[in-house]
Amino acid sequence: MTKQLNVFVENRPGRLESVTQSLLESNINVRAFAMQDRGDYGLLKLIVDKPQEAYLALSEKNFACALKDTLAISVPDKPGNLHKLTTVLAENDINVIDAYGFVLEPDHQGICCLEIENLKETNAPQIVSEAGFEVLSAEELSDL
Q: Where is the ACT domain (predicted)?
């Protein structure tokens, strides 16, 4: 299972830079990120090479942050594969509450990072694997 670091960032100039500065000082490599506007604050979602160290580094700088369990799935970048993945999840009554993805070049390897409702209580990793997708470990995701 992979970890995503969620950071609440005040919505003002320079605040995002202070997050990246803290990660730089701790030699944390950001593998992927997404940010959502939530009014006065934004929610920054990070996939990093050392999630626990990143969490501690940001907590020490008084950032409100949390580590979330996620499912990182390798999905070949071809038409219909995302639909195949979402179909198998829906057919097994598995609820995706947050998701984002990216494609790695030159291998055209798609990566879907999914936050699953009650992930530990589901058999989502097994179902996804049986459908022919590769569920990435934290180390595999970090090494991409």
A: 70-144
Final residue of a domain: which of 68, 89, 107?
68
The helix/strand/coil state of 69 is: strand
- Domain membership of residue 81 as a residue range: 70-143
DSSP per-residue codes, 16-60:
HHHHHHHHHHTTPPEEEEEEEEETTEEEEEEEES-HHHHHHHHHH
Residue numbers in the chain where pLDDT is lower than 50: none
Predicted TM-score of the model (pTM): 0.84
93 and 136 share one domain: yes
